[in-house]
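Service request form, structural biology core

Requester: graduate student, group of Dr. S.
Request type: structure prediction, single chain
Budget code: on file
Notes: please return the result as structure tokens.

Sequence provided:
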Amino acid sequence: MARAGCDVLVGWCVSEGTPLANETELLAWAVLRASNRTQAKGTTIRLVVPRAPEVAHDLDIEIAEERLLDVEEWLVERGYLVPADIGLVWGTYTLTPAGLDWLRDGMPQPLEAPQRITEHAAPSQPPTGGTEPSAVSGRLSWWRRMFGG
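Core staff response, request fulfilled:
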């Protein structure tokens, strides 16, 4: 879901359009936190389905199905989720103790990727007039609401 030319969900930082080096990690943490709050409730015993509607509702954003699959894979590869093979259509998992510890450690810090200088790059200028300030304000408030920054 694009928001005024800058989308965290596809790799763009909401502040100034800079790509984030750890964008998947940030989204994975938010999805794991929402899954824990809405489904696991702080235990490794309950099942979680990161693609369930209540998780997306808790996040208050739309995430493409492919993006959620990437996030689930990222969480499984790092040992924060373990697949629960119970024959459901959606991916069903349990949180691991490592996943709960990762949540307790707090959200990872956003890391800006190095900017590449290209021939076509325009110099950075503060927004002027039009609707740009409100768009920037909306993106920042979403980012702060989502990640507390």
